[in-house]
Design a protein that fits this description.
The complex is a heterodimer of chains A (202) and B (80).
Chain A (H helix, E strand, L loop, with lengths): L9 H9 L3 H23 L2 H18 L9 H19 L25 H5 L4 H4 L2 H14 L2 H12 L4 H8 L3 H22 L5
Helix pairs in contact in A: 1-2, 2-3, 2-4, 3-4, 4-9, 8-10, 9-10
Chain B lengths: L5 H6 L1 H5 L5 H12 L2 H20 L6 H17 L1
Classes of the chains: A mainly alpha (202), B mainly alpha (80).
Chain lengths: 202, 80
């Protein structure tokens, strides 16, 4: 039986999929497969693991759909499953320990002023223009991987998946102020990393 | 802490950009940055960072990978 799915809300599709409507489940997969894969890729760092995570996320979705109560948006609920699945996968793989990126934090003199010239402070902005794109992508994936886990997840959801801070907070069960603090630290570290790649001290 | 120095301003920068700072702290920060070329340069690179990282880490599955995924999930859902 072919059922109408286009234009239906995620939440309505979720209810139908929970009642074994295969078309509704397939439509949810189509709507979210790119986003789930992209999130997984940025959290686990490679294509094959990202595919494994994506498959696992939708299998879990299938099993857990009957528990979706509609208290949060469907997307938020699915992002929570995807984030947790990617982190569990990563932990199970026992990746290399994270190296601190503290050295990339901005530097200040004793009076609290920036160290460096305006040109040095701004150089990170030109990273795409000045560096090979593929190399830059590899270095940034590695830098994301080196972020402390709490910073990494908050940064990926907020800045790379572009979820509003409040939605990231709801997804991770954190206060918005905590999300802001973690995303801010991640931005500072990655900004410093970009400067370092261009041969300038952060 | 009021953002009367670069360091204090950087500390509050994300809150500033998200519009969650109290009005007086916001005004203080804006006043500092307006007179500080170092901070203006820093803010430009700070704001650019998420955009650059997002752009260079963009990665999509292939059409074949997506077809396999859907076929597998459909077989699982059909069995459910």
């Amino acid at each position: 039986m072919v059922t109408q799915t286009t234009g239906t809300s995620d939440e309505a599709l979720a209810r139908r999929a929970a009642a074994k409507d295969s078309d509704a489940f397939d439509e949810l997969v189509v709507r979210y497969q790119h986003r789930v894969y992209r999130l997984a890729f940025r959290l686990v760092g490679n294509d094959q693991d990202a595919l494994d995570v994506t498959q696992d996320v939708f299998l879990q979705l299938f099993r857990r759909l009957h528990t979706f109560r509609g208290e949060s948006r469907f997307g938020t609920w699915l992002y929570r499953i995807a984030t947790n699945t990617a982190l569990m996968h990563r932990r199970a793989r026992a990746r290399r320990p994270t190296e601190p990126l503290e050295e990339y934090l901005p530097r200040f003199d004793s009076s609290g002023s920036h160290c460096g010239t305006p040109e040095e402070l701004q150089v990170a902005e030109r990273a795409e223009e000045l560096l090979d794109r593929q190399l830059l992508g590899q270095r940034m994936m590695r830098a994301i991987e080196q972020l402390p886990e709490g910073y990494r997840v908050a940064f990926v959801l907020r800045d790379l998946e572009e979820l509003p801070t409040e939605e990231v907070a709801a997804t991770l069960g954190l206060k918005p102020a905590t999300v802001r603090q973690r995303v801010h630290r991640a931005r500072l570290m990655l900004r410093g990393c970009l400067s370092d790649l261009l041969g300038v001290q952060p | 802490m009021k953002p009367s120095t670069c360091q204090a301003g950087v500390h509050r920068l994300m809150e500033y950009l998200e519009g969650t700072l109290p009005t007086d702290v916001r005004a203080e920060l804006e006043s500092h940055v307006a007179g500080c070329p170092l901070c203006r340069a820093f803010v430009a690179s700070y704001v650019a960072t998420p955009r650059i990282v997002r752009s260079v880490t963009e990665h999509a599955p292939t059409a074949e990978q997506l077809r396999s995924l859907r076929a597998f999930l459909q077989s699982q859902h059909g069995r459910g």
